[in-house]
Amino acid sequence: MLHERLIDALGADAVKTAPEDVRAYAFDAYTDGRPPAAVVLPAGTREVCAAVKIALDCGEPIVPRGSGTGLCGGAVPIEGGIVMSLARMNRVLAYEPARRRARVQPGLINLDLSRATARDGLFYAPDPSSQRISTIGGNIATNAGGPHCLSYGTTVNHVLGLEIVDDNGEVFTTDVDRAGYDLTAALVGSEGTLGIVTAAWVRLMRLPEAVRVWLATFADVDSASDAVSAIIAAGIVPTALEMMDAVATRAVEAAFAAGYPTDAGAVLLIEHAGFEDEMNAYESEIARIAREHGANSWRAARSAAERDALWAGRKGAAGAMGRLSPNYYLQDVCVRRSTLPKALHAVEEIAREYRLTVANVFHAGDGNLHPLLCYDKRDAKQVAAVIESGNEILRMAVDLGGTVSGEHGIGYEKREAMTAVYSTEDLAAMARVRDVFDPKRAFNPEKIFPAGVRCPEVVPA
Amino acid sequence: MSGSRARVTAESIAELLAQCSREGRAVSVCGGNTLQGMGRPMEHPHVTLSTLDLREIVEDAPADLTIAVQSGITLRALATQLARHSTHVPFDAPHAADATVGGTLAAGWLGPRRHLYGRPRDFVIGSVAVLADGTIARAGGMVVKNVSGYDMSRLYVGSFGTLAVLVQVNLKTLAAPGHARMFHLRLPERTRERALAQLSRLTVTPSAAFWIHGHHATLDGDDGDEGRMSILLEGAPTVLERATRDLRSAMGSAGVPETYVIDAGARESFERIVDAYVACVGERSVTYRIACFPDDVLPRVDACSALSGRFELRSDAIVDAMNGDLIFRVNDLDARSFGAKIEMFDDALHDQEPQAIVIAGNHRSRPLLAVWGAQVDGIDKMRALKAQFDPKNILNPGRFVGGL
């Protein structure tokens, strides 16, 4: 009945039901769930509405999905149901370069938007490392960041309005310039639990006049993280400030030959975008702070090609980890920037205790750590060690006044960790929002909120 | 809290709200009262809750470029604290000496430098709020990136105090721009469009640019029937020098006759313009904010001016040329004639500009105006949120959009 109704409404080519077809949608980059009863690939908002209504009628939950690059099980159908892939809704619906904005469908690949607008000197700022494959809809769901959000802000700062299909299969819109509650902000980062985003107005930025990229090397991670804290404490916020440790740099060099030194204990990749007139002074100041904190070399990328190669290496770093071990687990925590040295030290200790190789490649300027724990999933002991050390890293971040996700979201993986950050009252306030948008828990169930604590139970009497 | 000598704390607010929720008593939440011209006036008998006692800096973390403050601290006090570390948070709300951080955020104020630095809500990384039932709820934290659950802080911000009372906000800060320079230009009618069009072509984006018509009583300069432009540039000295050359050349080619530059007092001059956004003419003016785009704001100013002329109302305008905001004030010589016209004007304006909202004006006819513009999409969701967070409807009842 479900299948027939979906095919009637969306057409046979937009509905997958064969076990071998739907199994592929039970995964994201973190884990797998139950194969869904069906996968739908709507072509537009109307089809999304129809599919939502049918799913609700049939009592099936709906799990929205972009490219499935998420790292927390956010797009995984834990209870089966219907996976709604927005991949076919990948068009730019309106483009207004003079107003520096575009209206896009959720399945548009992030990088494709910047590519399409570059001819007018514009770009879309949020740039998660997955931007070649991840979708803007998925980025909205997780309020995705990226190296350049240090200066430009995360996705929520770049979304001007949304079109959403609600739990009745009806459409409503939000607009940050309209009077009323900031529903846009509530929906961005809600991980598909409050409705299905079917279109978004996004802000475009003017490409900078000048971009410089510098590379500073350090003997160890401690001195590099001291330098990062000192740069931020001096009030300098470059466009991007990334760190890689020796394990990461060697893997990246082996994979990409991007131009990173393989003999350094840690490297900082620093980018500043702005005006040609200020670059020299800017470089002098950052280089001075870096040297004061032990930088033993400093070099500037001499060409756009060299700059692009360094960035390609950085953004491809997670992929390069395949050279170190059959599997890796990428943790995502955010700490206060001044506690970065302590946090990195703690990560090293945790990895040592569990006898795991750890590679650190992360958004240092934001205090957003991404320890990559290397393991072999065929070895049950290693799997257990990775899970426990991952949890210890979460606890460490919270103990340092940080949080359990900087940019990847909570999804299925981290929902139990929410209680480490928030009290019952804090979570109950969030549950009130869920109750408004999705009282029946039809959208992406078993995500964000801790298991075993149903929302009605956390709402105080 | 009126009538009480006890210092207001988060806990005392929680107690008060829990009691008012039980008794179904309305609570009017206020900060520095600088934006009391926004929203519908309170009609219910109510308890007044002032946040002015909540003025502590909870945690200043300059090494993290973050700060946590109580919501009743004034924008000036916050700026003074941040200036010690050469940082700032550009909220750009009027009357910074009195305006509170919580009030500015709750009112969803949008300042003129947001196109460059971001909206006020984008600086909020965490909050402590008291909900209508007295629950104290925290959200976010002191880290600059955080995707752990829904962004409750941003939901409370801009809710006009109708969902929760903000008692603390955690903010990320920015390095303050080292230097500022303000340009004042006389802008004859024939040069206006060309001059504004030049702004988007400048290589150094101005921090703010205004086209101002009228406002003679509150702002310097007598431009007669012509308008004038004020442009704020910020940055390093080398960048400012280049920007100055570019700006003069661009304005020269647009036919703008003269450019008057001030360095000392540039920021004060900018603040006076922001203050003028909410300047009232006795009890016989109403000021609207109309969200336009930089490329269509001028014809919309002209249409609004023509409309006010039809009603024989006087008008002043401030155009935020970088964001496209139109701040349009209408007034009359005496309150009685103003009262006779303003309701009809308000209707006619909303036919023309459905999203126009009132940001200032204390005329007694305000309850009859469409102060939040036309009905907004998503209002059902907003009503449901209000019912969830404030089921007894005690927080600022009726003051916000759609009677929220």
Overall mean pLDDT of chain A: 94
User: What is the count of helical runs of chain A?
Assistant: 17
Strand line-up of the largest beta sheet of chain A: 15-12-14-13-18-20-16
Strand-residue proportion of chain B = 15-25%
The largest sheet of chain B, given as strand count, sense and whether it forms a barrel, is: 8 strands, antiparallel
User: How many β-strand stretches of chain B?
Assistant: 17
Shape label of chain A: globular
In percent terms, what proportion of residues of chain A is strand? 15-25%
Structural class given helices, strands, pairing of chain A?
A: alpha+beta
How many domains make up the 3D coordinates of chain B? Answer: 3
Report the helical percentage of chain A. Answer: 25-40%
Describe this structure in words.
Chain A has helices at residues 2-10, 19-22, 45-57, 110-117, 136-142, 149-152, 183-187, 221-233, 246-256, 276-292, 304-315, 317-320, 340-353, 380-399, 418-421, 424-437, 455-458; strands spanning 15-16, 38-40, 62-65, 82-85, 92-96, 101-104, 122-123, 159-165, 171-175, 196-203, 205-206, 210-218, 240-245, 266-274, 297-300, 327-330, 333-334, 357-362, 368-369, 371-375. By secondary structure, chain A is of the alpha+beta class. Chain A folds into five domains: 2-85, Uridine Diphospho-n-acetylenolpyruvylglucosamine Reductase, domain 2, CATH 3.30.43.10; 92-206, Uridine Diphospho-n-acetylenolpyruvylglucosamine Reductase, domain 3, CATH 3.30.465; 208-323, 2-Layer Sandwich (Alpha-Beta Plaits), CATH 3.30.70.2190; 325-413, Alpha-Beta Plaits; 422-458, no CATH class. In chain A, the strands form five sheets. A seven-stranded antiparallel beta sheet of chain A has the order 15-12-14-13-18-20-16, sandwiched between helices. A five-stranded antiparallel beta sheet of chain A has the order 5-6-10-8-9. In chain A, helix 8 (221-233) crosses helix 10 (276-292), helix 8 (221-233) packs antiparallel against helix 13 and helix 9 packs across helix 11 (304-315). With 404 residues, chain B is an alpha+beta fold. Chain B folds into three domains: 10-175, 2-Layer Sandwich (Uridine Diphospho-n-acetylenolpyruvylglucosamine Reductase, domain 3), CATH 3.30.465; 179-274, 2-Layer Sandwich (Alpha-Beta Plaits), CATH 3.30.70.3450; 285-368, Alpha-Beta Plaits. Chain B has eleven helices and 17 strands. Chain B has helices at 10-23, 75-83, 101-106, 114-117, 152-156, 192-199, 237-253, 266-276, 297-310, 335-352, 379-389, and strands at 26-30, 46-50, 57-61, 66-70, 87-88, 124-131, 136-140, 164-172, 174-175, 179-187, 208-213, 227-235, 259-262, 285-291, 314-320, 325-331, 357-360. Chain B has an eight-stranded antiparallel beta sheet with strand order 13-10-12-11-15-16-14-17, sandwiched between helices. In chain B, strands 3-4-8-6-7 form a five-stranded antiparallel beta sheet. In chain B, a hairpin with a 4-residue loop joins strand 3 and strand 4 (66-70). The longest helix of chain B is centred in the last third of the chain and has 18 residues, at 335-352. The mean pLDDT of chain B is 93. The chains are: A alpha+beta (461), B alpha+beta (404). The interface between A and B is large, with 78 and 75 residues.
